[in-house]
Amino acid sequence: MRGAPEHIRSDQGPEFIAKAVRDWITAVGTKTAFIEKASPWESGYCESFNGKLRDELLNGEIFYTLKEAQVLIESWRRDYNAIRPHSSLGYRPPAPEAVIAAASPATWTGASTAAISTVLANGQVLN
């Protein structure tokens, strides 16, 4: 385990300047590094990600339980990292799920569609 980061960089939105959040950051031994107000270019990657998270997930969902939020957000995170194309990466996902097979699906004679789907989903190789 790496331990707590030296600092957490964020904007000065209400969720990051709330007393409970500041108290937690202090309790774990981390410091804050706020960007200047009205300066989103100081955290371009964060601003881009936060916008996509809000537009693609949060604006369309109402979470009734913490578990529901965890499941839906994890599903979105996996899609964002492993499936969703990113224009900055030549329309490839940042961490694609690789499938290594002994032969291409076209040469898997005798394999059912369900078996091939299972192989592709699990990253297994048919024998």
Share of residues in strands: 5-15%
The SS-based structural class is mainly alpha
Mean pLDDT: 75
Helix % is 40-55%
Unreliable residue stretches:
107-127
End-to-end CA span: 38 Å
Radius of gyration over C-alpha positions, nearest whole angstrom? 21 Å
The arrangement of helices and strands along the chain is EHHEHHH
Spatial order of strands in the largest sheet: 1-2
Number of helices: 5
Shape: globular
Major sheet details? 2 strands, parallel
Number of strands: 2
Number of domains: 3
How would you describe this structure in keywords?
globular, 5 helices, 3 domains, two-stranded parallel sheet, mainly alpha, 127 residues, 2 strands
Overview of this protein structure:
It is a single chain. The chain has helices at residues 14-17, 19-27, 44-56, 66-82, 113-122; strands spanning 7-10, 31-34. 0% of the residues are buried. The protein has a two-stranded parallel ribbon with strand order 1-2. 42% of the residues lie in helices and 6% in strands. The radius of gyration is 21 Å and the shape is globular. It has three domains: 1-34, no CATH class; 47-96, no CATH class; 97-127, no CATH class.
